[in-house]
Amino acid sequence: MITILRLLNRRRSRIDRVRARLIAAGAGAATFLVCTAVSLADFDDEGGSLTGLALALLALPVAGLVHQANRLATATRERRLAGLRLAGATPGEVRRLGALEGGLLALGGSAAGAAVYALTHLAGPLEQVPVVIAGVTLGGALSGARAGRHVVASPLGVVRRSRLRGPRVRDLLLVVAGVGLFALGGVFKGRFALGGAYGAAVVIAAGMAFLLFGTTLAATWLIRAYARRVGRRTESPEVLLAARLVEADPRAWARALSVVSLTVFIGAAAGAQQAGPGYHQAHALVDLALLVALATSAAALVVHQAEELLDRRRSFAALVASGVPARALGGVLVRQALIAALPVCASAAVLGVVVVIVPLLGVYQVQWLGWAAARAVAMTGIGVLAAMLVALAARPMLRETSRLEQLRA
């Protein structure tokens, strides 16, 4: 298996090499941040717990970037794996090959991140490093195994379309469970009944995981419903095309915006909590972590935008060949980002404020609501603006992928 992987890597394209570097760099950054967060997390002290949480928040957008990078150049990789399937490779072997590739990249990156952590924390605890490396490597292997699942189903590229579904009950239950666990860990940190000092940390981490997966699944329906509504009411050709493109594949946008929505959620929740007095330095560290997390989320959106342009280059080239100006297609990209990001970021901001206020209804003062609402609106605007700026930055790549030569690609 390793020999086959080496042979395939010798003929990798430039995009494949970029994808490999992104995965390794993301795995290294996630390992360093998680190890540092665990070493700083002290749930007997409010400031220490918020500092550890701030660093842990940074690892989530990095993980999203790694998963999004694993999907870059999907069409090229699927053609490569399809050749193996047609040559006699079994579905299990294709899955193992993808898992091996993703696992090795994540292992190399996480080892580098652990080395940087060990050099910068000579007196700090090191017992969590092997556990973090194993977790990051496992995540990379699972992401790599899932990347080629369409080839496993059909090596000949047969397109199977199913009816788009609405949200299932379990999707909404994941969101509710995530919000509940996050609020529970925040209320009882330092005196959680199970797990001692780190019990609240485990509960908050589980809540984030449930919330991330739940919002991704539920956002698919939310994005599709909003795009359908916009498409029915608009009279602009650009908005109509953007709405139909988003409605045709809402899951891809939900996956790309999941980390952005989580950042907006945490930012709105932090703003609602910061309306009260105390711990200004710790809250400043949380805000700094959110800014870095938003930048990393924007990088994940850049990867998603590149993936979409590469996968739809023939369609865009056909539109240009039929007379559609390239400037209009650039406007379509920006409107796609606006249509997809607005409902997701707005709902995440509202949810973040509710999570903080509901457990504190007895002590939360009315005059604090103004700051909480302003912070939620600001986080929504920042998330939507980031998505639109990424779409604007993708215009030069759009010109490259919409050339007439792409019709023969």
Automatic annotation (TrEMBL):
Keywords from the UniProt entry: Membrane, Transmembrane, Transmembrane helix
Highest taxon in the source lineage: Bacteria
Keyword Zinc-finger part of the UniProt annotation: no
Transmembrane domains' residue ranges: 20-41, 47-67, 104-123, 129-148, 169-188, 200-223, 252-272, 284-304, 337-362, 368-394
Identification of the protein by name: FtsX-like permease family protein
Source organism of the structure: Nonomuraea zeae
Lineage: Bacteria, Bacillati, Actinomycetota, Actinomycetes, Streptosporangiales
